[in-house]
Amino acid sequence: VTVIDKASNVECYECKAKPTQKVYPICTIRSTPSQPVHTIVWAKELWKLLFGSKVEDSMLFEDDDIGKEEENEEERKTEDKEEEKEKSTEEAEEEKEKSTYMEQVTSLRTLLSTKTNDSKEQIHKATTTILHALYGLEIQKQINMDRYKSSKTLPTPITLEQIETSVKENGVAPSKQKTFVSTNVWSMEENIQEFISCVVDAYTLLQKQNDDESTTITLVPEFDKDDDL
Question: What does pTM read for this prediction?
Protein backbone atom coordinates (compact mmCIF):
# COMPACT_ATOMS: atom_id res chain seq x y z
CA VAL A 1 0.00 0.00 0.00
CA THR A 2 1.38 3.38 -1.03
CA VAL A 3 0.35 6.23 1.23
CA ILE A 4 0.11 9.59 -0.52
CA ASP A 5 0.37 12.85 1.34
CA LYS A 6 -2.59 14.82 0.01
CA ALA A 7 -0.99 18.21 0.59
CA SER A 8 2.15 17.48 -1.47
CA ASN A 9 0.78 14.61 -3.57
CA VAL A 10 3.93 12.53 -2.99
CA GLU A 11 4.40 9.10 -1.44
CA CYS A 12 5.61 8.72 2.11
CA TYR A 13 9.27 8.09 3.02
CA GLU A 14 8.80 4.40 3.85
CA CYS A 15 6.36 3.49 1.09
CA LYS A 16 8.99 1.57 -0.83
CA ALA A 17 11.35 -1.01 0.62
CA LYS A 18 14.92 0.18 1.02
CA PRO A 19 17.43 -1.50 -1.31
CA THR A 20 19.18 -4.54 0.16
CA GLN A 21 22.76 -3.91 1.17
CA LYS A 22 25.17 -5.70 -1.17
CA VAL A 23 28.53 -4.43 0.06
CA TYR A 24 29.58 -4.99 3.67
CA PRO A 25 32.40 -3.54 5.78
CA ILE A 26 35.44 -5.78 5.79
CA CYS A 27 35.65 -5.71 9.61
CA THR A 28 32.06 -7.00 9.83
CA ILE A 29 32.76 -9.92 7.50
CA ARG A 30 36.12 -10.80 9.04
CA SER A 31 35.40 -10.40 12.74
CA THR A 32 31.83 -9.53 13.73
CA PRO A 33 29.25 -11.14 11.42
CA SER A 34 25.72 -10.70 12.77
CA GLN A 35 23.45 -11.80 9.90
CA PRO A 36 23.17 -14.98 7.78
CA VAL A 37 24.20 -13.02 4.68
CA HIS A 38 27.47 -12.09 6.43
CA THR A 39 28.38 -15.77 6.69
CA ILE A 40 27.61 -16.28 2.99
CA VAL A 41 29.91 -13.38 2.09
CA TRP A 42 32.58 -14.79 4.41
CA ALA A 43 32.28 -18.18 2.69
CA LYS A 44 32.64 -16.47 -0.68
CA GLU A 45 35.79 -14.70 0.49
CA LEU A 46 37.18 -17.95 1.90
CA TRP A 47 36.54 -19.56 -1.47
CA LYS A 48 38.61 -16.84 -3.14
CA LEU A 49 41.33 -17.26 -0.52
CA LEU A 50 41.64 -21.02 -1.02
CA PHE A 51 40.73 -21.50 -4.68
CA GLY A 52 40.72 -18.11 -6.45
CA SER A 53 43.18 -17.32 -9.22
CA LYS A 54 44.43 -14.33 -7.19
CA VAL A 55 44.57 -14.88 -3.45
CA GLU A 56 44.89 -11.14 -2.81
CA ASP A 57 41.37 -10.61 -4.21
CA SER A 58 39.89 -12.07 -1.02
CA MET A 59 38.85 -9.86 1.91
CA LEU A 60 40.50 -12.45 4.14
CA PHE A 61 43.89 -12.07 2.49
CA GLU A 62 46.65 -10.83 4.79
CA ASP A 63 50.16 -9.85 3.71
CA ASP A 64 52.77 -10.10 6.43
CA ASP A 65 55.37 -8.45 4.17
CA ILE A 66 53.54 -5.11 3.85
CA GLY A 67 55.65 -2.35 5.34
CA LYS A 68 58.54 -4.61 6.31
CA GLU A 69 61.06 -2.90 4.00
CA GLU A 70 60.39 0.47 5.57
CA GLU A 71 60.58 -1.01 9.05
CA ASN A 72 63.90 -2.73 8.27
CA GLU A 73 65.35 0.52 6.94
CA GLU A 74 64.30 2.29 10.13
CA GLU A 75 65.83 -0.46 12.24
CA ARG A 76 69.18 -0.08 10.48
CA LYS A 77 69.28 3.56 11.54
CA THR A 78 68.80 2.64 15.19
CA GLU A 79 72.01 3.28 17.14
CA ASP A 80 71.45 4.02 20.78
CA LYS A 81 69.92 1.87 23.51
CA GLU A 82 66.67 3.81 23.68
CA GLU A 83 66.04 3.25 20.00
CA GLU A 84 66.91 -0.42 20.40
CA LYS A 85 64.29 -0.66 23.13
CA GLU A 86 61.71 0.96 20.89
CA LYS A 87 62.61 -1.42 18.09
CA SER A 88 62.04 -4.42 20.34
CA THR A 89 58.61 -3.10 21.21
CA GLU A 90 57.76 -2.63 17.54
CA GLU A 91 58.91 -6.14 16.73
CA ALA A 92 56.74 -7.55 19.50
CA GLU A 93 53.74 -5.69 18.09
CA GLU A 94 54.53 -6.95 14.60
CA GLU A 95 54.69 -10.51 15.88
CA LYS A 96 51.36 -10.00 17.61
CA GLU A 97 49.73 -8.80 14.38
CA LYS A 98 51.21 -11.55 12.18
CA SER A 99 48.61 -13.54 10.24
CA THR A 100 47.43 -16.71 11.95
CA TYR A 101 46.39 -18.50 8.76
CA MET A 102 48.13 -17.21 5.60
CA GLU A 103 51.03 -19.65 5.86
CA GLN A 104 48.58 -22.55 5.99
CA VAL A 105 46.59 -21.09 3.10
CA THR A 106 49.71 -20.80 0.95
CA SER A 107 50.60 -24.44 1.68
CA LEU A 108 47.12 -25.64 0.70
CA ARG A 109 47.08 -23.60 -2.52
CA THR A 110 50.43 -25.11 -3.47
CA LEU A 111 49.03 -28.62 -2.92
CA LEU A 112 45.86 -27.81 -4.86
CA SER A 113 47.84 -26.69 -7.89
CA THR A 114 50.15 -29.73 -7.99
CA LYS A 115 49.42 -33.31 -8.97
CA THR A 116 50.98 -36.00 -6.77
CA ASN A 117 49.90 -39.51 -5.86
CA ASP A 118 49.24 -38.69 -2.20
CA SER A 119 47.75 -35.23 -2.68
CA LYS A 120 44.34 -36.11 -1.21
CA GLU A 121 45.87 -37.19 2.09
CA GLN A 122 48.09 -34.10 2.18
CA ILE A 123 45.15 -31.82 1.39
CA HIS A 124 43.14 -33.48 4.15
CA LYS A 125 45.88 -32.65 6.65
CA ALA A 126 46.40 -29.13 5.27
CA THR A 127 42.67 -28.40 5.54
CA THR A 128 42.72 -29.52 9.16
CA THR A 129 45.45 -27.00 9.96
CA ILE A 130 43.56 -24.22 8.14
CA LEU A 131 40.41 -24.99 10.14
CA HIS A 132 42.39 -24.70 13.35
CA ALA A 133 44.02 -21.47 12.19
CA LEU A 134 40.73 -19.82 11.19
CA TYR A 135 38.45 -21.08 13.96
CA GLY A 136 41.04 -21.50 16.69
CA LEU A 137 44.11 -19.28 16.44
CA GLU A 138 42.40 -16.38 14.66
CA ILE A 139 39.44 -16.28 17.06
CA GLN A 140 41.79 -16.38 20.04
CA LYS A 141 43.78 -13.53 18.49
CA GLN A 142 40.60 -11.47 18.10
CA ILE A 143 39.63 -12.19 21.71
CA ASN A 144 43.06 -11.07 22.91
CA MET A 145 42.56 -7.83 20.97
CA ASP A 146 39.23 -7.22 22.77
CA ARG A 147 37.39 -7.41 19.46
CA TYR A 148 34.33 -8.89 21.15
CA LYS A 149 34.28 -6.82 24.33
CA SER A 150 30.79 -5.51 23.54
CA SER A 151 29.40 -8.96 22.62
CA LYS A 152 26.97 -10.74 24.90
CA THR A 153 28.94 -13.97 24.52
CA LEU A 154 32.49 -14.65 23.40
CA PRO A 155 33.14 -17.07 20.52
CA THR A 156 34.88 -20.27 21.58
CA PRO A 157 38.09 -21.13 19.70
CA ILE A 158 38.22 -24.66 18.32
CA THR A 159 41.25 -26.69 19.36
CA LEU A 160 43.28 -28.86 17.01
CA GLU A 161 42.37 -31.85 19.18
CA GLN A 162 38.66 -31.21 18.63
CA ILE A 163 39.15 -31.11 14.88
CA GLU A 164 41.23 -34.27 14.77
CA THR A 165 38.75 -36.10 16.99
CA SER A 166 35.84 -35.01 14.77
CA VAL A 167 37.63 -36.32 11.70
CA LYS A 168 38.31 -39.69 13.31
CA GLU A 169 34.84 -40.19 14.78
CA ASN A 170 32.87 -38.97 11.73
CA GLY A 171 34.21 -40.92 8.78
CA VAL A 172 31.60 -39.70 6.28
CA ALA A 173 30.57 -36.09 5.70
CA PRO A 174 26.88 -35.39 6.55
CA SER A 175 25.93 -34.54 2.96
CA LYS A 176 27.24 -37.92 1.80
CA GLN A 177 25.32 -40.01 4.31
CA LYS A 178 22.23 -41.96 3.25
CA THR A 179 20.20 -40.29 5.98
CA PHE A 180 21.15 -36.78 4.80
CA VAL A 181 18.40 -34.16 4.92
CA SER A 182 19.24 -30.65 3.73
CA THR A 183 17.27 -29.04 6.57
CA ASN A 184 19.19 -30.82 9.32
CA VAL A 185 21.18 -28.63 11.70
CA TRP A 186 24.73 -29.95 11.86
CA SER A 187 26.82 -30.19 14.97
CA MET A 188 30.28 -28.62 15.16
CA GLU A 189 31.83 -32.01 14.50
CA GLU A 190 29.67 -32.54 11.40
CA ASN A 191 30.53 -29.09 10.07
CA ILE A 192 34.23 -29.85 10.47
CA GLN A 193 33.89 -33.10 8.55
CA GLU A 194 31.83 -31.41 5.82
CA PHE A 195 34.37 -28.60 5.37
CA ILE A 196 37.27 -31.00 4.96
CA SER A 197 35.24 -33.16 2.58
CA CYS A 198 34.38 -30.12 0.43
CA VAL A 199 38.03 -29.13 0.03
CA VAL A 200 39.00 -32.69 -0.95
CA ASP A 201 36.07 -32.77 -3.41
CA ALA A 202 37.23 -29.45 -4.86
CA TYR A 203 40.64 -30.97 -5.51
CA THR A 204 39.00 -33.97 -7.22
CA LEU A 205 37.01 -31.56 -9.39
CA LEU A 206 40.18 -29.70 -10.28
CA GLN A 207 41.83 -32.93 -11.40
CA LYS A 208 38.93 -33.76 -13.71
CA GLN A 209 38.87 -30.28 -15.25
CA ASN A 210 42.56 -30.22 -16.10
CA ASP A 211 44.74 -32.07 -18.57
CA ASP A 212 45.73 -35.47 -17.17
CA GLU A 213 49.27 -35.09 -18.55
CA SER A 214 49.84 -31.73 -16.87
CA THR A 215 51.66 -31.51 -13.54
CA THR A 216 49.89 -28.28 -12.59
CA ILE A 217 46.22 -27.48 -11.98
CA THR A 218 44.18 -24.39 -12.77
CA LEU A 219 42.09 -23.32 -9.78
CA VAL A 220 38.31 -23.61 -9.66
CA PRO A 221 35.64 -21.21 -11.04
CA GLU A 222 34.10 -18.39 -9.06
CA PHE A 223 32.06 -19.02 -5.92
CA ASP A 224 28.43 -20.07 -6.37
CA LYS A 225 26.38 -20.49 -3.21
CA ASP A 226 23.99 -22.85 -5.04
CA ASP A 227 26.71 -25.14 -6.36
CA ASP A 228 26.46 -28.73 -5.09
CA LEU A 229 30.07 -28.56 -3.90
Answer: 0.71
